[in-house]
């Protein structure tokens, strides 16, 4: 009988590097026979399949006619796992498979992995101790891309100081009661109902969490608000006091929104320092095309100070550990104190300690700014203190929305 192996990693590790080392047998303690067929479940592999499908215009997973790219995050993971297991590999390495999965799907996956572990050698690489399935007995920790004895003490490279966040250079002005108003919004894709009569009003300065299981339409709803989805037009959807499709440009809307999604971090591969990354938030561009003003530099320095990173202002962003990169990206999105800050699953891939810090940082931003915050997640993040939660619940006629007020 085979058994699963757990590797719990901190954010000093790069999971792709860990996987390469496992494949080339650099960890003899795993007693792995690398001559056997090894399959890998990871964001990198998923991305490669998406690209393959686009280039060759063929359905890679062969299960449905829907392109992988248009599947929801959770649906993509389920499809990839089914595809890999069908090949019956001797070894299956899984890089954080529970990320992006809702609670029900996490339970199902854990049970499924327990069954699979009797026939396939599983190596489970995780960043969150809360995700560890009970059936796994052989455990290691990974730090700086090496295996060490199991411990769940992970460390963070940033802190959140008890000093006020920097104030905006220009204060926000609101001439409306609601920042966002959705009135009876409906969405279907190829006759499949996704959103059913969604009514949701968000006032300026509120802190909202948007939750719902995989495929319930969270991303669809967000993309309508940001203007990335044409399905918002012609509906009763108001943003910053204007009805969608009544002359405002997508650019007008976007420049008042700070956006963080984990995919965004991967776009910054150039030689930008931590300071430049924060200042870049004033210019809505990836590179720094304008010379920053003294006030902008001062604000960036203050944000770095809040994060205890004042001595790392000249460190290249791409060389910073993942937790520090996330904090910088959030400071960048906040530097202008946008009307709306959207955080799409910002703790994905973070270890427990860095996830806690990020949550502390977001609570602080919510308490000390007038920016409206929309925190999107399929799981309630421990310690997060939103004013309200908007929950999508799937039905056969599309998802319906419910509001849960805190306290
Ligand atoms: N362009 C598209 N064509 C067809 N179906 C789509 C398209 N975009 C999204 N969908 C479907 O709409 C549903 C909602 O997807 P959406 O990405 O909004 O869900 P989600 O709540 O963000 O899910 P997750 O938590 O898994 O990320 C899914 O079933 C998805 O497959």
UniProtKB/TrEMBL annotation:
Gene: modF
Cross-referenced Pfam families: ABC_tran
SUPFAM superfamilies: P-loop containing nucleoside triphosphate hydrolases
Entry keywords, A to Z: ATP-binding, Nucleotide-binding, Transport
Protein's name in the database: Molybdate ABC transporter ATP-binding protein ModF
Stretches assigned to the ABC transporter domain: 180-407
Molecular-function GO terms, alphabetical: ATP binding
